[in-house]
Amino acid sequence: MGLYLFFIFAILTLLFAITIYITGKNKREDTYTDLETEEWYCPECGFHVQAGDKCIYCDTSKP
User: Fold this and answer.
1) Parallel, antiparallel, or unpaired for β 40-41 and 48-49?
2) Which of 6, 22, 29, 43 stands the most exposed, by the fewest C-beta atoms within 10 Å?
3) Backbone angles phi, psi at 13, to 5 degrees
4) Rounded to two decimals, what is the model's pTM?
5) Of 24, 27, 28, 26, whose CA–CA distance to 16 is shortest?
6) Which residues contact 5 (CB under 8 A, 6 or more apart)?
7) What is the spatial distance between Cα 63 and Cα 57, in angstroms, rounded to a whole number?
């Protein structure tokens, strides 16, 4: 009986450690860290760009 409890505890501990590792890895991989977040108006079409350095409508770069 004691050996079964040990194996169950070991498996649960291993699954918990893997879950913590995977969730921590996903938090560190932020794909939006290099995104320009300053808002600006496109000089070509007048669209209010809220994020990025190119207008999504006319593909004009930020001045």
Assistant:
1) antiparallel
2) 29
3) -65, -40
4) 0.47
5) 24
6) none
7) 15
pLDDT in tens, 5-45: 999 999 999 999 998 888 776 666 666 677 778 899 999 99
**Residue 45 Cα to chain centre, angstroms:** 31
Both structure tokens of 6: 């040990």
Q: Which two tokens stand for residue 9?
A: 């505890």
Residue 57 Cα distances to 3, 28, 33, angstroms: 65, 31, 23
Q: Which of 5, 48, 15, 26 is nearest to 57 (CA)?
A: 48
42 contacts: CB under 8 Å, gap ≥ 6: 48, 49, 55, 57, 58, 60
